[in-house]
Structures are given as structure tokens and as C-alpha cells.
Amino acid sequence: MKANRINNIIGNLDEDLIAEAATSGVDAAEKLPAAASSGAVKPAAGTTAAANPAATRRPAWLFRAAAVACFCLAIAGIAWATGLLSPKKAPAPGDNVGYDFTSITLDTVINYVIRYSPETEIGQYKATYKEIGHGATGKIGGTAALFGVDVTLEELGNYLGEAAFDGEDGTEWFRLKGRQDLQYVISRKDGSYHLWEFFRFDLDKKYPFADVMKYVYNLSSADDISEIVVKPSLRDNTTAGKEIQKQIGVHSITDRATIERFYGLLTQVSLTDTTGIFDAGPESFKAERYLEIKTKDGRTIDPLKYEGIGGRFFEFGGLVYSLLADADRAWLAQLFSINYNPAALQPTATPTPMP
């Protein structure tokens, strides 16, 4: 499986859940008893672990091994509990179990864990949403930014807005309270609530991003945008990668003429591919930027990314938009502080003043 395919798949996982899993993994590793095998140091007779720091210092491979073991057990548990280990008939729309899997792969496991909604009519399109999951604490990822506080599934009923669209099998769909857009919606069925985020329109239509802005994000012009926040790619989180992220920095664009031109670019691109982004090698993340579009009514739209070498906007999940003209790519390279050698396809990250 290609690295950028894995990156796109993992990009669908909620960052709060990943952080929680990482913390839980460390806590679990700290509770492991002192290893009696080679590489572990036993305290001398008559001494305690506190008096013998070497006895409590686990080697790095032990933590990694524990994390991998937990992940494998989780995959096996999901596969056993849901029947992935035995063939099933094809599912109904929106049902993520029952595919005729003859083997378990990262794609099938991840695509099972991420729950997608049945297709629903929005404008001229059929739209798919992905559920925003919750961690062991029951809190749903990202809800503090949406509602001002962390929210559980049971508490979602306090945030129901107007009806969003018609549902199936008794499921009701609502906008968020006080909002007219369809970026996020809440489903209700039999007293249970779930929070969903827009993923994509139907793939058989190479839809323009302008329609996503119109039907989903409720953006009708550049006047609806107050700010564009440009962030470095998080694809390399090694020590060196984090240093590059720090060098690139986070920049805010509020100049009206710049926002107008940027909005114009978004209205020109259409979905062209669903397999991944242009990858010029391990250094290409330096030319990637993660974007946040801030609206005048206080919303944040953040699925969109930009790949500077390929000259395309993209989203996690393999959604890639049409190639920009050379002049527009050059303008964005300057705007986003992307400096690279096109001939060598090796980007660098030297910040330049933003407008």
C-alpha cells in the first residue's frame, strides 16, 4: 500500500482519539511489570525499584512492542466481533459491515472503524458524511471547538437545530443549533444521537468545489470569509519535522483582495481524483499547507489542504482537485511561503512575509 494512501486513510481518524490512544498506550506501558527477560534489569536483593532506577526504566522497544501488540489485538477484536473474518453479503448503503473480505488489510480495518452515513440528497448531489467518534471518556472529538464545551453523545440533543434533510429507517437529521450550513449534522434515532461531518458528494460526478461551498458550507462569496489561516503540514512529526513546522509557522491572511482571489481559485477547481495526492518523495511535506477558512459568522472550515509541488488542493480521504494554472501556483507559493526547486522537486521551507 502506498504511503500517501495510508496517510489519507489515517487522516480520517479524529486527532483527539489518536492523542487519547497514545496517552492510554503510555499509561498501559508504565503499568507493565518489570521484564524478566534479557534487556531488563532486576533490582538487587534487599533494594526497591525506587532505589534502583534502572529497574523501572523500560527499553524503548518495550513501549513500541506494547503499542503494536495492543493495535493488533484491537484489529483482531474488531474483526472477530463484526464477522470480518468470514465472508458476508454486500451491505446496504451506509452499512460498513458485511463486505466480502477474503483477507484483513489496513484499508478494510480502517474503513470499518470509520462509520459513513447513507447517501443523502443535498442539492443535485448525493452526499456522504463521516461520523465523528468519541474516546474512552465518552467525549466527542472536536466538540469543544464547535460548542464551547466537550460534549458526549447523550448531550448532543441539546444542540439540535433545524431539520437538515430527510432520513431513512426512522433516522432524523438536524443542523447544529443556530447554524444554517451542513458542514456538521446530528442524527437522532430511537433516542440515540451521533455527530457527523461532511465527507464528499457522489464520486460519479466530478463536482466543482464551488458547489461544496454553496450547498454544504453556505458560502456565497468572498465576503463570507473573514480570515484564512495557513498552517504547516503535520505529515512529518519527527523531531526534525516539528522543527520544520516551527520554521514555517502559522500565518493569518485577512487582506480583502487576497481573500477575494483565493475564493476565486476555489470556485475554479473540481474533483478529479480519489486515489491520493502527488508525492515527490519524503521531502514533499515541506510544500504542503493545511488551511482553515474562518467565516464572518464564526465558523471554521478546515478539511482543505494544498500541495505545492503538485499544484492542487486536496482533502484527506484521497480527494484531489484539479490542477491549478502556473500563474496561480506561483501566486500561492508566494502567499503560503512555499519555496522549492521545481526541477529537483525538492521543496524547502523558508518563511516569507505574508500579506
Description:
β4 and β5 form a beta hairpin. α2 crosses α4. The strands form 3 sheets. Strands 7, 8, 9, 10, 11, 12, 13 and 14 form an 8-stranded antiparallel sheet that branches. This protein has 355 residues and is α+β, with helices and mostly antiparallel strands. The protein has 3 domains: 108 residues, no CATH class; 87 residues, no CATH class; 140 residues, Immunoglobulin-like. The two termini are 40 Å apart. 29% of the residues lie in helices and 21% in strands.
Topology summary:
Layout: H1 3-10, H2 15-30, H3 53-56, H4 60-82, H5 106-113, E1 120-122, E2 125-131, H6 143-147, E3 160-163, E4 172-176, E5 184-189, E6 192-201, H7 209-215, E7 225-232, H8 239-248, E8 251-253, H9 256-268, E9 271-273, E10 288-295, E11 300-301, E12 305-307, E13 312-315, E14 319-321, H10 326-335, E15 339-341, E16 346-348
Antiparallel strand pairs: 1-2, 2-6, 3-4, 4-5, 5-6, 7-8, 7-10, 9-14, 10-11, 10-12, 12-13, 13-14, 15-16
Helix pairs in contact: 2-4
